[in-house]
């Protein structure tokens, strides 16, 4: 086939829709290649540094590469093979500020004291070569990589970390809610920094591997102290030069951790350096960092690719067409577009890869176990009632009708890819068995009215609303089927759709009967750091027990004291947060999940199937899969974009 793919071509392929949906805040990318002299092909001859930087060294504009690298550079093992220098990589921005910031960061940023390994399961050294933790997890000592430099050539060291903690995170004028709680930082020597907490913080290192971890290593003191009132009484004068009223405003905006895509003047430790701002609303370009501190196994300085060009393309239909025409380097189209994407992959010169969802379920259904109505509370807290409802759901029919036969019946439980997988937890009560559902419900609520609706302990019909937010269109489709299944076994349930704000507001006020929300907690990092689907930690997102979550978060001053087994979960999670032993964290979390399995406090529908993406055939060392989970994993960043390369034509 020759010629460009058109909208008409797309519509011929089985009526496939032509929209591209963002599956995570950093997961939809497209490029349009700007005119210019950039070549997509890498250089033929491999050297210890890129030819462009070697030319600057020869011209006296840069120090030799050995003087730009730390004494012990971090050696990155390539996904497939040692790459080659050169070329430009073209990606898409959607035009939505928060999503675009995450996209820029997840491809060109992500350098913390520690990081996720390429499997997204282990935390490994990065800027810090090692660290030690005291017995009660209140003191962390990090040894920094000696000889590292910011992208402007200035030394990086403990002073920068101390500045970030003491003068940014713990200054209430700048940071209203510190991301790691009350903490202090002190310089031990020229390569060592100590971070201390007022109470145990065992998951600190885990959080350092997430997007949150940039807070300690993304504040170059030599650049930012001119805007800080503590160091410069004339901070407002400096701030007004760049359009801000004072230094505090600068530090909260273009000086902060989300400024990488907006402030080309701020030095960085990342593989590429910003040259244009996303505020321009058209194109963002990042160029290689001459002081980047990582090398390949042959000792050649990374990154391989010269620059990344992010083009703002807001129209999803245009995005799909450009994907099919091979005018992009990476994209993640919708699942329903897969037939047309597969049809045109040869013409577009791209291949497909797996995208493992972070979420474990297409929709989680939560009965309100702390309901204000005593009768509904009694019914909803009856475990057999919940089990009966689960057996009544024909999950296979839902998967066929709503998800194009993609997925498998699954409860509220970690994914198959997770260390925390418990197959019994994931599959219990997922069989479609109307006879068993009726048998269980008949024992609990045998009486029915003339319409066949079961009667509760007060003699009134068991009737309730299921709040469904419109933020995810498939939720309403799923619940329309679910309530129909429940009505067939004598339960008068009805869907109550509303905006996410309304659903959240009703949850916060404890005014909901049942609610539906996202199935977060499929992969290891989120199971550990944000397990609100497994025990009541967040009001309202732990919709099954918002008053219990309030009790936990206020240390009993508000909310409602939960049952003994829920209190046991909370005590176990306190221990998770108190220990820095990652094996012990896993053991404790498995015990929390065991209790969640026994309680069966929420009903799942199906595990999300793997998504897919497209990557240009010219991109080398691309991983076999990436994942979602923007704030935790910042995918594909853990797979080391610095070692991707452009293959020769």
Task: Give the structure's gist in a few sentences.
With 649 residues, the protein is α+β, with helices and mostly antiparallel strands.
Structural description of this entry:
Residues 32-55 are annotated as: Disordered. This is Peptide/nickel transport system substrate-binding protein. The protein is 31% helix and 17% strand. Helix 14 (383-391) runs antiparallel to helix 17 and helix 22 packs antiparallel against helix 23 (582-599). The longest helix has 18 residues, at 582-599. It has 649 residues and is an alpha+beta fold. The strands form eight sheets. The chain has a five-stranded mixed β-sheet, sandwiched between helices. Strands 2-12-10-9 form a four-stranded mixed β-sheet, with helices on one face. Strands 5-6-8-7 form a four-stranded antiparallel β-sheet, with helices on one face. The protein has 24 helices and 25 strands.
Any chance you could write out the topology, listing elements then pairs?
Blueprint: H1 7-12, H2 51-58, H3 65-68, E1 74-75, E2 88-93, H4 97-108, E3 114-116, E4 123-125, E5 128-133, E6 139-144, H5 158-169, E7 183-189, E8 192-197, H6 204-208, H7 221-224, H8 235-241, H9 247-252, E9 272-274, E10 283-288, E11 294-295, E12 307-312, H10 316-324, E13 330-331, H11 338-343, H12 345-348, E14 350-356, E15 361-367, H13 374-380, H14 383-391, H15 395-402, E16 408-409, H16 423-427, H17 434-444, E17 463-469, H18 473-487, E18 492-498, H19 500-508, E19 514-519, H20 524-529, H21 546-553, H22 564-578, H23 582-599, E20 603-604, E21 606-607, E22 611-616, E23 619-620, E24 625-627, H24 630-633, E25 645-646
Parallel strand pairs: 1-11, 2-12, 14-24, 17-18, 17-19
Antiparallel strand pairs: 3-4, 5-6, 6-8, 7-8, 9-10, 10-12, 13-22, 14-22, 15-19, 15-20, 16-21, 23-25
């Amino acid at each position: 086939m020759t010629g460009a793919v058109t909208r008409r071509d797309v519509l011929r392929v089985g009526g496939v829709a032509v929209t591209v949906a963002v599956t995570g805040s950093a997961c939809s990318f497209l490029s349009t290649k700007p005119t210019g002299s950039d070549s997509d092909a890498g250089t033929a001859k491999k050297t210890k540094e890129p030819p462009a930087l070697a030319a600057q060294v020869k011209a006296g504009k840069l120090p030799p590469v050995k003087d730009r690298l730390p004494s012990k550079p971090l050696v990155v093992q390539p996904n497939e093979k040692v790459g080659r220098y050169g070329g430009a990589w073209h990606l898409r921005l959607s035009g939505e500020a928060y999503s675009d910031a995450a996209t820029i960061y997840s491809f060109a940023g992500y350098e913390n004291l520690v990081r996720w390994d390429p499997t997204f399961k282990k935390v490994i050294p990065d800027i810090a070569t090692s660290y030690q933790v005291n017995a009660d997890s209140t003191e962390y000592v990090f040894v920094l990589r000696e000889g590292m430099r910011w992208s402007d050539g200035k030394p990086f060291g403990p002073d920068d970390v101390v500045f970030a903690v003491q003068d940014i995170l713990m200054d209430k004028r700048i940071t209203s809610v510190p991301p790691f709680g009350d903490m202090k930082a002190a310089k031990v020597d020229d390569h060592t920094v100590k971070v201390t907490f007022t109470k145990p913080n065992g998951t600190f290192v885990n959080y350092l591997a997430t997007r949150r971890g940039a807070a300690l290593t993304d504040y170059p003191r030599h650049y930012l102290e001119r805007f800080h009132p503590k160091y410069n009484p004339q901070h407002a004068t400096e701030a007004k030069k760049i359009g801000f009223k004072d230094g505090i405003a600068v530090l909260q905006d273009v000086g902060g951790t989300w400024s990488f895509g907006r402030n080309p003047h701020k030095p960085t430790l990342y593989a590429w350096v910003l040259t244009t701002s996303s505020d321009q609303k058209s194109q963002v370009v990042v160029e290689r960092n001459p002081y980047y501190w990582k090398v390949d196994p042959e000792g050649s300085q990374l990154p391989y690719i010269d620059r990344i060009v992010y083009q703002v393309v807001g129209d999803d239909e245009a995005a799909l067409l450009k994907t099919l025409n091979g005018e992009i380097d990476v994209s993640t189209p919708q699942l329903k577009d897969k037939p047309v994407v597969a049809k045109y992959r040869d013409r577009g010169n791209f291949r497909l890869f797996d995208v493992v969802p972070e979420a474990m379920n297409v929709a989680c259904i939560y009965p309100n176990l702390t309901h204000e109505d005593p009768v509904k509370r009694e019914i909803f807290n009856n475990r057999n009632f919940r089990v009966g409802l689960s057996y009544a759901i024909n999950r296979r029919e839902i998967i066929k009708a709503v998800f194009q036969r993609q997925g498998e019946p699954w409860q509220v439980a970690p994914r198959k890819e997770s260390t925390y997988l418990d197959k019994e937890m994931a599959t219990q009560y997922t069989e479609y068995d109307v006879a068993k559902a009726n048998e269980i419900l008949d024992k609990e609520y045998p009486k029915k009215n003339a319409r066949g609706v079961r009667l509760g302990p007060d003699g009134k019909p068991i009737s309730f609303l299921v709040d469904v937010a419109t933020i995810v269109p498939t939720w309403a489709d799923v619940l329309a089927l679910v309530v129909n299944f429940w009505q067939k076994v004598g339960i008068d349930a009805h869907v109550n759709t509303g905006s996410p704000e309304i659903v959240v507001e009703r949850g916060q006020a404890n005014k909901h009967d049942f609610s539906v929300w996202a199935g977060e907690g499929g992969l290891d990092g989120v199971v550990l750091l944000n397990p609100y689907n497994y025990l009541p930690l967040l009001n309202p997102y732990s919709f099954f027990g918002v008053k219990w979550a309030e009790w936990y978060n206020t240390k009993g001053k508000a909310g409602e004291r939960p049952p003994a087994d829920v209190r046991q979960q909370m005590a176990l999670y306190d221990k998770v947060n108190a220990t820095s032993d990652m094996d012990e964290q896993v053991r404790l979390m498995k015990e929390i999940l065991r209790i969640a399995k026994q309680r069966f406090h929420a009903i799942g529908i199906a595990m999300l199937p793997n998504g897919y993406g497209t990557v240009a055939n010219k991109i080398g060392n691309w991983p076999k899969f990436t994942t979602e989970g923007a704030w935790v994993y910042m995918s594909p960043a853990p797979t080391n974009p610095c070692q991707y390369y452009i293959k020769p034509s």
